[in-house]
Amino acid sequence: xxxxxxxxRGKPGYPWLVFLHGFxxxxxxxxxxxxxLDDYPRLYLDLPGHGGSAETGxxxxxxxxxxxxxxxxxxxxxxxxxxxxxxxxxxxxxHACQHPAGLDGVIxxxxxxxxxxxxxxxxxxxxxxxxASRFRSEPLEAVFADWYQQPVFASLTEEQRKVLIALxxxxxxxxxxDMLEATSLAVQPDLRPALTARDFPFYFLYGERxxxxxxxxxxxxATRHAIPHAGHNAHRENPDAVAASLAQILRHxxxxxx
Length: 258
Hints:
By secondary structure, the protein is of the alpha/beta class.
């Protein structure tokens, strides 16, 4: 079993860029940003329960990491950078902390490193179970209309919310619910210790209007990039600035290896 994905060619000798979307996204989510990085071969994946991987499921982060590893092997990807947004960022951080072969670095946009106390985990579990129940039983348009009212999405305009609600409502509700529960923050380990002791380059991007993840970024042993004129969904709200940050990071890290 491997994840569905879309590949785009790059120049010989350049490492692969492997893109992981956020919850309810798909392999198209990063392609606008990735198009400007055309020197690099790129793989845009559909996470379990999403897009072409809608019928693929995982039981948790360890199984997700194994599935990602098998997928990369199937594409003969030997050296790669992981780039993940939100849920994809959390998966990228967990995977990187397993010390996989071939990983050159990690770039995360708005990914949570993990909850640190039991009360926060219990509250998140209750919340995610409620959302999962709604995804399984209600029209997706109604669920996403409420989903995008959460404080983390406060910077979105009404038009941006409408676009996202229409786009995300193409998903399969029960499959989304399964993935939401399997990869809930309630079951994700706190990755801060492992990220502090890491042996790979680690960069963290966040929208300058995203106060929650600006604060989380300050807790991490990572090189931080604030994306102007953007909130939590920075790669959609300001794709040019995100692409410029990625290009800068990659030029700096690999210029001496080519």
